[in-house]
Design a protein that fits this description.
Blueprint: E1 2-6, H1 11-22, E2 26-31, H2 35-38, E3 51-54, H3 60-66, E4 72-75, H4 82-85, H5 89-110, E5 117-123, E6 132-134, E7 138-140, H6 147-151, E8 167-168, E9 170-171, H7 182-201, E10 205-210, E11 212-214, H8 227-236, E12 242-243, E13 250-251, E14 253-255, H9 256-268, E15 275-279, E16 285-286, H10 287-298, E17 305-306, E18 319-320, H11 323-329, H12 337-348, H13 356-366
Parallel strand pairs: 1-2, 1-4, 2-3, 4-5, 5-10, 9-18, 10-15, 11-14, 12-17
Antiparallel strand pairs: 6-7, 6-8, 13-16
Bound molecules: uridine-diphosphate-N-acetylglucosamine.
């Protein structure tokens, strides 16, 4: 098949490209080589057997060319920092929401006859807080946390009826969305627009809500990269990783290889069409424990700095209920967290990295995001 991967030079897209090529597909990459991530260079890991077109998703003419003769599209191109999205509002919305609008516009108006499937990278961030349970009131979705509570260090959401502390539960796709950042709003837009256009024109589409993806090729130069890469960059610089809040906030970390296998599964199976699936590990770890695990694996002498501050737009807990994708397609994650972290750390050993935390903090503080 002829496959287009937007964002195919990125962390997730590039692994997807490798697998698609290994399976015998012809793959075209469309990527703007975002300077914040790639410094404008083609990354050395980019698959030599892929065709590469440099272009922005908002460049209609270039994207039109990139869509020529394509059967399947994986739309991975996006700006990904939750914190950065809170002050680069137009830039994020242009790249994420408008970029998807341009892609869908071209699909509908010029390429409808040959596109057999479109898979869009959506995000767990669309849920806002995940699903919780209250010992008195049962399962519920709490309100987003209030600034005044967080300023007091009251980090955990509570039951709005009986004020009891809540326990997080696996979050299924049916959980109402409650976006808490511009990034999350953008991701919801991408998902909604793709499903709307797919259903309206009978173009098979699938949205995958990725949880916290980690693994090799995660940018070590983008200060808004994910927490695992930021912690590693701190340790490499012999600095303590800095943990926001009290370190007990949790996430569901899923290996990039599992994300790739989920994309392949939905491409190959028509039962996935017009559906939304969570893609996570199905379990959660606190950010404090993640930091300790990374310190243990690297053998570093550093410790964690728990700073009791918070980042606007952050949620407290969310982890995936993966029963829908498992029951529908038989997909299951294969990479255990510790193995995945070892792979990330091994890969990063000979890579240059700066202390990403220092750089992002300067800006986020100046903008009032932390
Ligand atoms: C991440 C992704 C987002 C994706 C979402 C899906 C990145 C940059 N963002 O957002 O694209 O859609 O997962 O779940 O990969 N933290 C620290 N110290 C740090 C950095 C972060 O304590 O130095 C904390 C944050 O406050 C937060 C947690 O770690 O509580 C996770 O942060 P981050 O890795 O940025 O991920 P998300 O915001 O969940």
């Amino acid at each position: 098949m002829n496959i287009l991967v937007t964002g195919g030079a990125g962390f997730i897209g590039s692994y997807l490209v490798d697998t698609l090529i290994a399976q015998g597909n012809k793959v075209r990459i469309y990527d703007n080589l975002e300077p914040q991530v790639h410094q404008g260079h083609i990354p050395d890991y980019l698959n030599k057997d892929a065709e590469f077109i440099q272009g922005d998703v908002n460049n209609r003419e270039m994207l039109d060319k990139a869509l020529t003769g394509i059967d399947v599209i994986f739309h991975e191109a996006a700006m990904v920092g939750v914190g950065q999205s809170m002050y680069e509002i137009a830039k994020y919305t242009n790249a994420n929401t408008m970029g998807t609008a341009v892609l869908l516009d071209l699909v509908v108006n010029k390429h409808r006859d040959h596109i057999r499937k479109l898979v869009v990278a959506a995000s767990m961030s669309e849920y806002g807080e995940g699903l919780y349970t209250c010992q008195n009131c049962g399962d519920l979705k709490p309100d987003l946390r209030r600034e005044i509570d967080m300023k007091e260090g009251d980090w955990d959401p509570f039951c709005s009826k009986c004020k009891t502390p809540l326990s997080p539960k696996p979050t299924p796709e049916t959980t109402p969305l409650q976006c808490n950042s511009i990034y999350a709003i953008n991701k919801r837009d991408q998902e909604d627009m793709t499903l709307n256009i797919g259903c309206s024109f009978q173009i098979p589409v699938v949205a995958l809500r990725y949880f916290n993806v980690f693994g090799p090729r995660q940018s070590l130069s983008n200060p808004y990269t994910g927490v695992a890469a930021i912690f590693m960059s701190r340790l490499k610089a012999n600095h303590n990783p800095v943990v926001f809040e009290d370190g007990k906030q949790s996430r569901d970390f899923v290996s990039v290889h599992d994300i790739v296998s989920a994309n392949i599964a939905v491409m190959q199976d028509d039962r996935a069409n017009y559906q939304i699936f969570n893609v996570g590990s199905g379990s959660s770890i606190s950010i404090g424990d993640l930091g300790k695990l990374i310190i243990k694996i690297t053998g570093s002498n550093q410790t964690l700095d728990i700073n009791n501050k918070y980042r606007k737009g952050d949620i407290r807990h969310c982890f995936a209920d993966i029963s829908k994708i498992t029951k529908t397609l038989g997909w299951k994650p294969q990479v255990a967290l510790e193995d995945g972290l070892k792979e990330l750390i091994e890969w990063s050993k000979d890579k240059k990295s700066e202390d990403l935390f220092e750089e992002s903090q300067k800006i986020l503080k100046a903008k009032g995001v932390v």
